[in-house]
Amino acid sequence: MSIPPRAATDAYLAKMHAQLDIVFDVDLGELVRGHHVVARGITFGRATEPELHYEFVPGMDLGEGQRAFDWYWMMYASDDVGTGYADFNGGAFDPEGDGAASHGTRDIGGEIPPEASRLTLRFEPPEDWVPPEPWRREIVIDLRDRRLAR
Fold it and tell me: 3-class DSSP state for residue 35?
């Protein structure tokens, strides 16, 4: 799958008068049955905790979004200074997307301390779903250079 433009995320951020603090476009694979999860970037939060912004590709419709937790993939954060991040996986997604993609956010689980230089985000599919390979189990973000780590 080729990664589509970041239109759903950009439209959401424009409505919120916000922008991504760290930008990347990473296809995590078909983390949810029938939908790739594309990680778009991080906002550090002003009124909220830091969030990962992502898109379901193709977009998630309202009926799918209300079905049990078939769409509820998990994310766990850690960093290089041992910060304890909550793993309650709060967030939201917009089931009213344009069909090509639906924007969503996932709480990182706490404030990222200024002394941290690397943030690792680890991903798991919903219960009872095994994504087809390839899929990304984690990404590492270089907080100093504000990009994905190599």
Answer: strand
How many Å apart are CA 19 and CA 143, to the nearest integer? 16
Beta carbons within 8 Å of 9's beta carbon, 6+ residues apart: 20, 40, 41, 53, 54, 55, 103
Q: How far apart, in whole angstroms, are the C-alpha atoms of residue 114 and residue 107?
A: 18
DSSP 61: P
The residue ranges of DSSP E strands in the chain, in sequence order, are: 22-27, 36-43, 51-57, 74-79, 91-93, 102-107, 118-124, 138-142, 147-148
The pTM of this model reads 0.92
Q: Which run of H or E residues covers position 8?
A: helix 7-16
Residue 71, helix vs strand vs coil: coil
Please give the Cα distance from 22 to 34 (Å, whole number): 27
pLDDT band at 128 (very low <50, low <70, confident <90, very high): confident
Which one, of 37, 3, 32, 55, lies nearest residue 131 by Cα? 32
CA distance 45 to 48: 5
Cis before residue 50, ω within 30 degrees of 0?
no
Which amino acid is present at 83?
T
Place of tokens 């301390």: 113
The predicted-structure confidence for 41-70, as pLDDT tens digits, reads as follows 999 977 678 999 999 999 887 665 455 566
